[in-house]
Design brief:
Order of helices and strands: HHHHHHHHHHHHHHHHHHEEHEHEHEHEE
Number of strands: 7
Number of domains: 2
Helix content: 55-70%
Low-confidence stretches: none
Mean pLDDT: 93
Strand order of the largest sheet: 4-3-5-7-6
Largest sheet: 5 strands, mixed
Distance between the termini: 70 Å
Number of helices: 22
Strand content: 5-15%
Oligomer: single chain
Shape: globular
Structural class: alpha/beta
């Protein structure tokens, strides 16, 4: 009962303080809304609508729009439901690997850190309205696959293995790197248990059949769209940046601070465990050392900011995995008992392959961190006491609760401060969003709200191109996007895609062009038409004239076609 109440309170608290402040009108979230709308209206993915990941999220979200109407609140509700499902999954998985305290703490931390955490100016790294539902849905499926696999190992029911493989197949239809995480876990299981492969053959056949349908309709173009973004050379600088490998030396101070905090917390636990084990320790001393441990670990981790606290986690998980492999190897006939923990650690470490030197709940970490959080919880509450004198389970639990409480509080503080700046309300028949008021003093919120208000005066059939991205403005205005392409960053117009866009625009020119003055420095670019997309930019200048300038310095420029 108590864990349920704690999780329900945490979930409702997160909903309350972040209500309708999720997502971003310009960056990424609008693409998720628009792609789902088009698919729900019958457009064929990869042919009529460009998409960089598997078909799971667009068709699921498109079905939700078809059932409940085209409204941003529909996908927000789907995101809230997926966050709740993930919290429950983590709780159930933790109960199988540790105890009720671990499960409650980890699931609560997931809600504050990953599901609703907000650490950047645009709130697109949450489970509610993420930069891509392909990430969150795929991770939900992959975690379900892990849970069912662990349950199969522990209970031996063939149905659980079949369901686990089915969830693995769903992850394969989501985001490739998430599927790779789940696949690594299943490969470990197959290598250690050598089960019959009938379930895997059926799962592979089902996955290939789905992609086969698209191949029959599209041919090689399926691979062009599905893999083009990730394989673009222009994507590599951004990829390396968010892995921490663009300049790995910059990651060292944060890594050292995180490692030092972990060392201090473990040392504190060791000292208190030694004190507790002394024969002169009175009964009430156990409670005192427990409170000292909770307070001490809270102080140690409370000193670190949200971008630093988890940097050492991949290295800790690598050590734990090596230790678990050695334990499994020595277990002999008891190997099956050790396998669930081995599988969990493989999954956790593989999850951080995308962020080896930038591990945290921020940016891509919001969907990659949940199971690593679970692994750290199992380490804190189960592994550590077994390595210390006297096996101080209660003391370790007190220290673990203090540590996680400090982490949750720091993340809540950071998120709350950013959510409190989402006060510009955009309300249309397509939904309501509270967007960020300003960015470094620049009134982006008012500029976007005024743009939506302007576009909403036009009839729904008005066709709009927004560059370099911002199709959320079109979606919320109730207008029509063009060319099935919804963002135009350097990597997205690499190769043949600029010519493809230009041919589409030439054949059916949009009625309006909206240019948003985004800073593309993170993409390694000076801007649309500056060092990429020059042909499209030249075509726009030749065929369109200014209609309105919105925001200081014409941050948003609305163009209309030259009179015939």
């Amino acid at each position: 009962m108590i864990p349920s109440l704690v999780l329900a309170a945490a979930f409702l608290h997160n909903l309350h303080y972040s209500w309708r402040k999720w997502g971003d009108l310009v960056v990424d979230s609008g693409r998720e809304l628009e792609v789902a709308k088009l698919v729900g209206q019958g457009a064929l993915l990869y042919r009529d609508v460009r998409h960089y990941y598997g078909p799971l999220a667009p068709y699921l979200d498109g079905a939700l729009f078809a059932l409940f109407g085209v409204h941003a609140g529909v996908l927000m509700a789907a995101g809230v439901a997926s966050a709740a499902a993930m919290a429950v999954l983590l709780y159930l998985l933790a109960r199988r690997l540790s105890d009720r305290v671990t499960a409650t703490v980890v699931a609560t931390a997931f809600l504050y850190l990953c599901a609703f955490g907000h650490y950047y100016f645009n709130a697109i790294f949450t489970w509610v309205l993420p930069y891509t539902y392909s990430a969150t849905y795929a991770m939900l499926a992959a975690t379900a696959s892990l849970y069912l696999l662990v349950r199969y190992v522990q209970e031996g029911r063939r149905r659980d293995l079949r369901l686990s493989v089915a969830a693995l197949a769903l992850a394969a239809l989501g985001k490739p790197e998430v599927f790779a995480v789940a696949a690594a876990t299943h490969l470990t299981f197959v290598a250690t248990e050598r089960p019959r492969l009938g379930a895997y053959a059926a799962g592979a056949a089902a996955t290939l059949a789905v992609f086969g349908v698209f191949w029959l309709a599209l041919g090689p173009r399926l691979l062009d769209d599905y893999l083009s973004f990730a394989l673009s050379a222009k994507f590599r600088p951004s990829l390396l940046l968010h892995m921490g490998l663009a300049d790995w030396t910059q990651a060292l101070p944060s890594l050292w601070a995180s490692a030092r905090a972990l060392g201090e917390a473990v040392l504190l636990l060791l000292v208190l465990a030694l004190v507790q084990s002394q024969p002169w320790m009175p009964a009430w001393g156990v409670w005192v050392t427990g409170m000292l441990g909770a307070a001490g670990t809270a102080v140690v981790y409370g000193r670190l900011d949200v971008f630093t606290q988890w940097r050492v986690l991949p290295f800790l998980l690598a050590v734990l995995l090596a230790q678990q492999v050695a334990y499994w190897w020595r277990a002999g006939t008891e190997r099956r008992l050790a396998l669930p923990h081995l599988l969990m650690l493989v999954f956790a470490l593989a999850s951080l392959g995308r962020t080896p030197l930038t591990t945290g709940a921020f940016h891509y970490g919001f969907y990659l961190l949940p199971v690593p959080l679970l692994a750290f919880g199992v380490f804190s509450f189960r592994y550590l006491p077994g390595w210390l004198p006297g096996r101080p389970t209660r003391l370790a639990a007190a220290c673990g609760v203090g540590l996680f409480a400090a982490v949750v509080f720091r993340h809540y503080q950071t998120s709350r401060a950013l959510y409190d700046r989402h006060n510009t309300v955009v309300r249309t028949p397509r939904g309501a969003m509270c967007i960020l008021d300003d960015l470094a003093g620049f009134p982006v919120g008012r500029a976007y709200a005024d743009t939506v208000q302007l576009l909403s005066r036009y009839p729904p059939e008005t066709r709009v191109l927004v560059i370099p991205e911002g199709v959320g403005l079109t979606f919320m205005s109730g207008l029509t996007s063009v060319c099935g392409m919804h963002s135009f960053m350097p990597q997205e117009l690499d190769g043949p895609f600029e010519d493809r866009l230009l041919a589409c625009l030439t054949a059916a020119p949009p009625d309006l062009v909206v240019r948003v003055g985004l800073n593309l420095g993170e993409q390694g670019s000076r801007g649309f038409g500056e060092d990429y997309a020059q042909k499209v930019a030249t075509w726009i200048v030749a065929h369109y004239e200014p209609l309105a300038q919105i925001g200081p310095g014409g941050y948003v420029l609305v163009l209309r076609r030259h009179p015939a």
